[in-house]
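Field: COMPLEX_INPUT
Field: COMPONENT_COUNT = two
Field: RESIDUE_TOTAL = 228
Field: MODE = joint
Values follow.
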Amino acid sequence: KAGVTQTPRYLIKTRGQQVTLSCSPISGHRSVSWYQQTPGQGLQFLFEYFSETQRNKGNFPGRFSGRQFSNSRSEMNVSTLELGDSALYLCASSSGQGGYTEAFFGQGTRLTVV
Amino acid sequence: AQSVTQLGSHVSVSEGALVLLRCNYSSSVPPYLFWYVQYPNQGLQLLLKYTSAATLVKGINGFEAEFKKSETSFHLTKPSAHMSDAAEYFCAVSETGGSYIPTFGRGTSLIVHP
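Field: COMPLEX_OUTPUT
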């Protein structure tokens, strides 16, 4: 069974630009969550999509957005990039059927904003 | 509301010594608890989880954790550390009947000395 795939693995962008990250979940998983990981703030929840609908949202500005397609693949977009957006962005998929379900993480996209 | 506190951002042990990583949680309802491990430049991988069955949970790679309701703790242990255990460890909690989104601790970096 293929794992969670995130593309690209590494990105370098300039302040003010926008970026789109992609996540392909494990086959059959309907929930995709996104996290931002930084040394200073740890792992912070961005949002979760379940069956193409945003089901949960973290405390991030509106520059951070996402969507989920009918095949459960998800994209995350960050507009007007700031230096502080430099981070490892992790995607996790699960069945989304209960709090006891395990999240399967991708290897992440390392975003550097210069 | 749920929260997780991991005591000690870094824990250093010698190879062959006992590993003890501490996790305390706060939850208004019976929780589900998880330990994840993250190796450099990788995503998170589930080590073990507590879902209200046995209070002593055994996971992969020789790790285990004990749920203690009276102490609101879920500490991770391994009898004998191996060099390959060096990684970042995250404790997470989610609530029964909640949003299904786990809250992660800040992480503990395990350093293993030869």
